[in-house]
């Protein structure tokens, strides 16, 4: 048995290590952003011609996309030109494993006339109910798109008082985060209290804004136009044009367009900034695959990873013949994280303390590099996963 003095020395040494490594971690986590985490553009599949031959409707104004994991379906939309020409399409798997326009009973799944349609997400996976964000008037609308060519408006919510509708510089991206994910990944409201939906939607709707890059969060009434504003959350950039929540990992993907050309991956937990506005934790920041107006994405879940990679489809505003791409090499979050020793869904100081407590010992549970000893190699692996919100 260790003497009290020996145990005190060990604790003091561990505390000193923790203080030193905290500084190291802070320096590590402020490193520059990473390269695009999938194959280069030249190796991606260009799907622009799916809509039709020659200059087709995909060539101009593609503005949003989302993926339905239950139905294995992709929804994409465009915002014009002009409100009458805005459209939504649904895509299904082709025989080759890629994507094609969906047909139901011989009818093409295409819908027209949504206003300045900037983003789309699922109201409920496995159904044909979608949520759309309309810029300019800043409305969220729920449509039933069960019948090709026939759009049925179910509900409309006015969010303009919080998003500050200002012509073409307002709400851009939309996604719905279900209640179980909000709980599991530590989402809190503006006051710091845990929050889920209270008005019947089964989740909270997040809106990415072009001005300031903020993400505004709303609790919407199911079957009525009630709106409860949950709070405003900062991202790392002053513009956000696309949002997609990956339910399989609990990560929120935000496109930053304009002069940024970046993809930010965010955790749902947040901290309060100096001005009182909460800020989502950044999991990673990536370069976009090219410089252009990427405004939407559909991400296949991490559970569908094959050989450490999965799909992401991106839509490009005014991209001409290069407006819709399929990447199959996305390697973000295609594996579990053994460094999360206490299984609280985040690799942080608590896991570091556990590793230090096992230092220089042969404990397989904490031997991340499996070399028979807990040492600097394991520490480097833990630092490499620091901040990961699993």
Question: What does the model show?
Answer:
It is globular and about 65 Å long. The chain is built from 5 helices and 23 strands. By secondary structure, it is mostly beta strands. It has 2 domains: 4-31 and 337-384, Orthogonal Bundle (Type 1 dockerin domain), CATH 1.10.1330; 41-330, 5 Propeller (Tachylectin-2, Chain A), CATH 2.115.10. The model is unreliable at 26-31 (pLDDT under 50). 14% of the residues lie in helices and 37% in strands.
Oligomeric category: single chain
Global Rg: 23 Å
Q: Sketch the major β-sheet.
A: 8 strands, mixed
Overall 3D shape: globular
Number of domains: 2
Specify the structural class.
Answer: mainly beta
The poorly predicted ranges are 26-31
Characteristics:
Type 1 dockerin domain, single chain, Tachylectin-2, Chain A, 2 domains, mainly beta, 390 residues
Could you give a short description of this structure?
The protein folds into 2 domains: 4-31 and 337-384, Type 1 dockerin domain, CATH 1.10.1330; 41-330, Tachylectin-2, Chain A (5 Propeller). 14% of the residues lie in helices and 37% in strands.
Q: Which helices and strands, and how do they pair?
A:
Layout: H1 4-29, E1 45-46, E2 62-68, E3 73-78, E4 87-93, E5 99-101, E6 103-104, E7 107-108, E8 110-112, E9 117-122, E10 129-134, E11 139-147, E12 150-158, H2 160-163, E13 171-178, H3 179-184, E14 203-209, E15 215-220, E16 227-234, E17 242-246, E18 251-256, E19 262-272, E20 278-287, E21 294-299, E22 310-316, E23 324-330, H4 349-357, H5 376-384
Parallel strand pairs: 16-20
Antiparallel strand pairs: 1-23, 2-3, 3-4, 4-5, 4-8, 6-7, 9-10, 10-11, 11-12, 13-14, 14-15, 15-16, 17-18, 18-19, 19-20, 21-22, 22-23
